[in-house]
What does this fold into?
Amino acid sequence: MFETILVPLSRSRHSEMILPFVARMALLHGAKVTLLHVLEPPRVLLRPVGSMLILPPTAVDALENEGLELLEAMREKLREMGVQAGVLLAHGRIADTIAKTARDMGADLVAMVSSHRPWLSRVLSDSVSVATYHRMDRGCLLLVRTGAPP
It folds into this structure.
């Protein structure tokens, strides 16, 4: 049923709660799993240079290193569950980049965690999971976090 599963991960503590569900699906269907972390430059690190805003290279390097460490840690958790996974670090607007990556790699399913807030609050706010869901043209599994992460 699923051949390729894309798992967007953030640096939030609850992001990894999706991993046991992804592991079960991957093992059941023999699916290939790719873990994705998208870097969207934080506005506070931008500094004006003439008429442009520039992110210092050291800040970009630090964010990339943090992203790669996150991906490797989550890949190891999946490995412990018996699932091999690839990792991908991307740059761009988060929801747009997740949707584009899913299309480009031919993912059958995008699996991610959504924070526990009332549905209307998520729809009216700047929720990455809701924005991603609305950009999807394929299966999307949203695990709604209802408590503190383990």
